[in-house]
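Table S2 (continued). Query chain:
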Amino acid sequence: MSRVPVAVIAGILGFLLYIAAVVALADAVLPGHWTLHVLYFTVAGIAWVWPASRLMYWAARKEPPRRRSVSRR
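Corresponding output:
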């Protein structure tokens, strides 16, 4: 089996599990104030991007770009 179908299946299942965990954690831990919910779901809505990008690079058999350090002269 090639990497692309594996990555698609893993990505979809992982994303569904991530959503379930985020919602369950929010219900169990967060108090009812709406500003905390907005902050939590903003962070949780962005946090999945890094693992998803790593999965896409793995499926494409490419190395992810590395950060370049800025040297001061």
